[in-house]
Amino acid sequence: MLDIYLTMKEIKQIPLDKIMKALGDPIRLSAVQQLLQASNNEITCGDFNYGVQKATFSHHIKILVDANILCARTEGVRKFLSINPEIEKSYPSILEAIKNS
Amino acid sequence: MLDIYLTMKEIKQIPLDKIMKALGDPIRLSAVQQLLQASNNEITCGDFNYGVQKATFSHHIKILVDANILCARTEGVRKFLSINPEIEKSYPSILEAIKNS
DNA sequence: TCCATTGTTTGATACTTGTCAAACGATACA
DNA sequence: TGTATCGTTTGACAAGTATCAAACAATGGA
What we know:
Two copies of one chain form a homodimer. The radius of gyration of chain A is 13 Å and the shape is globular. In chain A, strands 1-3-2 form a three-stranded antiparallel β-sheet. The first copy, chain A, is α+β, with helices and mostly antiparallel strands. Chain A has helices spanning 2-13, 16-23, 26-37, 54-66, 85-90, 92-99; strands at residues 43-44, 70-75, 78-83. Chain A binds chain B through residues 15-26, 28-29, 91-94, 96-98, 100-101, and chain B through 15-26, 28-29, 91-94, 96-98, 100-101. The first copy, chain A, binds a DNA duplex through helix 4.
């Protein structure tokens, strides 16, 4: 309950231009699109489709997580990524636009 | 009629990540927000509220026009900017997100 | 214990971007 | 004609960003 409150507050503090900036890169936008199409709503870092080195991709994922667009949970040596449900609440139309593109 | 067809085609070729990138800057996002709130849907370059030199602002406006987010018409020495109606058709939810932010 | 797997961090490099001042072009007006 | 206004272009600079290779950390399994 407290967690949810804090997360919402945090999201509201993320300005929209930072979210847009995070999405304004083909690799990052593609990652979000892959997640939106994922059957189980989760993809591990290594299972994404990307055409760059893993170090570069790790950098991009970090930007998406910092912008609160994705959230991550670690299981053993793997990192599972998913769309942050809070962004759907705060900016639902943005993900809508990505889905329909 | 032909004009409209060409504009639509042009818009579809603008990838979403370019649009997001154009909006991922506080000055440019603010300009779009001011236009969305403008009573007559038009603002001249000089009438925007911006905190940078006019050369810098001109640069930002160019990016928004190149991304087909804004369109421009010139009247004498003035340039009137407005939201490109085609972007509302192609990506309606993006402007929606900006309005509600 | 050793090795493979998954992802991060670091350092380097090339490229892009935001910014300004100054000069410029085009139009309007006296 | 001369001058003011509005906006663009250019050149320069600092800051930010994407990229890679290499080294690293943490976990799991043989």
